[in-house]
Amino acid sequence: QVQLVESGGGLVQAGGSLRLSCAASGRTFSSNAAGWFRQAPGKEHEFVAALSWSGGNIQYADSVKGRFTISRDNAKNTVYLQMNSLKPEDTAVYYCAVRKDPFLRVAVQNYDYWGQGTQVNVSS
Predict the structure, then answer these.
(1) What is the pLDDT of residue 58?
(2) What is the Cα–Cα distance from 83 to 74, expressed in whole angstroms?
(3) In whole angstroms, what is the distance from residue 68 CA to residue 112 CA?
(4) Which residue has the higher pLDDT, 29 or 80?
């Protein structure tokens, strides 16, 4: 059973930066695609970014493109989300998710394992 633990969330002013980490345990996930999603109060889960098992295929939501960077370190079994130029509308709980296969997908239902989430608050 894969367990995912996110960290790095917090409170930041608009224009600031945060780096989220997602550490996997229970098995190696170097052959699995991974992604980040977020959920703001009263809203559905929203796709943020995802990458294939190798990191060679990456996709971002239009709302974060140019500001966020997803990456992975398979040796550390960890996925990262570097968030720059943060805006108040980025405020949400951010979730890490991993698929059972290597290929990048953007839909929530395509992901098999989820972390507990980390809160990001961006003040104006």
Answers:
(1) 97
(2) 20
(3) 23
(4) 80
Closest by CA to 6, choosing from 36, 42, 28, 26, is 36
Check residue 54 and give its pLDDT. 84
CB of 41 closer than 8 Å to CB of 21: no
β-bridge partners, 69: 82
pLDDT band at residue 115 under the 50/70/90 scheme:
very high
Output the CA torsion 93→84→78→121 (10° steps).
-20
Half-sphere exposure of residue 42: CA atoms within 13 angstroms, side-chain side: 0
**Cα–Cα distances in Å, from 44 out to 4, 41, 52, 56?**
21, 8, 24, 28
